[in-house]
Amino acid sequence: MSFETVNSKVVRAHVSASTPVLARRGAMLGYSGQVTFRPVHGQGRGIGGMVGAAMSGESNAMMATEGTGQVLYGYKGLHVTVLELDGGAPLVCEADRLLAHDANLQTSVQFLGSGGMKQAISGAMTGQGLFTTNVHGRGSVAVLSHGGAFPLQLNGQQVGVDPQAYVGHVGQLSVDLAAKVGFRDVVGRGSGEAFQLRISGHGTVYVQASEQKF
Amino acid sequence: MTYPPGNPYGGGNPYGGQPQPGYGQPPGNPYGQPQPGYGQPPPGYGQPPPGYGQPPPGYGQQPPYGGPPPQGAPSGVPATLNPQSLPDDDNVNPYVFCIALNGEWFMSKGAMLAYYGNIQFDAVTEYSSVQAWVANRFSSPVYIQDWVVAQGHGKLLIGDRGFDLNAYDLDDGNLTIKASNLCAFSKQLELKQSIVPGFVTLIGTGKFIASSNGPVIFVEPPFRADPDALLGWADCPSPSVHHDAQWMTQNIRGMISGALGRASGEERQYDFTGQGTILLQSSEIAREDPAVLRLVESQTQLLTNAQAGSLGQRLVARAQQQH
Fold it and tell me: Where do the TM regions start and end (chain A) (predicted)?
């Protein structure tokens, strides 16, 4: 059912008739067994749905993996982190960080602008644009990161995260962008840490060990 | 096919013909074997090297990344290495390999990081005019320009793009590997161009070093691999190309490009059958391999003039589309 970690950059999915998998196109490394791949257009039918996906650029070309067999997934040598979603709070991350997930999970596009201007700015800063993807349901998700993602547990505390190092989060969390732009930043002599994501609440934040995207 | 059946690289090799318990499992231990002292004479050519028939180094049965350095320095502090403490024909860390050079090795241009001792690097093309055996060993005119011969005595450190490096011991076997991932091979091995473009085949008995993006994954046929993720294969017949019919019929664009002989890469896999081992890596960002252009160009001799003209037009159109 879920993904099995082969090494830090590759996961193996056991695909059967009852457990198809949705994966990023071009992420299949190889397979054994009777497995077929089918291009999937558009994302979930959640808020925003197809229109949102088309508008936002938050639609990543995906493919369905069906049949019976074992499939290896990996993408451009990026590190892969497997997350288990318990059906509670959705996983919030960018669509192009999704390597593969169980096909019974729903994805939807969320407009950050509805959370006010601050949310929209934070989206722009994290490179997420004004939209982000929510993954709902119970199942496994394989998430891509540069350098590997580590979880930070939050129980009411607050954590500051570099926007470029932010991968995603699960739980009841609020994400705010804190900007401390002083004179030194304007003249290009800032610390490089003028923008931070202030994340607080209850849940888990995933941070990658790099400020490079892909 | 003279090697012992079911065991391509000699006795005790973990990725032989036997089914493996999970192919993510590494073949052996890079730091585990005690290093022979530097003062000890390196094995003469023609004799089996010390690691011969033993598992090639791999990663994972011990903590390789950030694991204890080989020389027993305090953990977290890398040991300062010198010619004596550098390993003989073994990994310094997952990304750097040290060759104890005594004689000649073939090396990919740009793979050298550093060296101790007296080592000369000559282009294979030049060296083969001095030493006739080189031309016999390196029978690939397409790749010969990208290779050098390292000659002399000393410790030679090699690396490739920060990828994981693995040494493989061939025992009267054959292994085909992606040309851009092959870093070095000992002069006992013979290199030939594979039928599959971009791959070369190593034949004989000896050691070679290849890079991979992430640890190498070993699988057995029947298996279908994405061309970008395929690192190589040993002992199986050369792959055939499998086209996913379902993908092509369900995807209009795929159908059109399929009819035009183009492929987006999604529906096309290399299909392996028979007995052997397939080496996979996480798909890498393709490095431009200058030899591929030479390879394809040499193939265009098959075309008639009219065909060559229309191919030229398509290529021009493609180049313009991308810019």
Answer: none
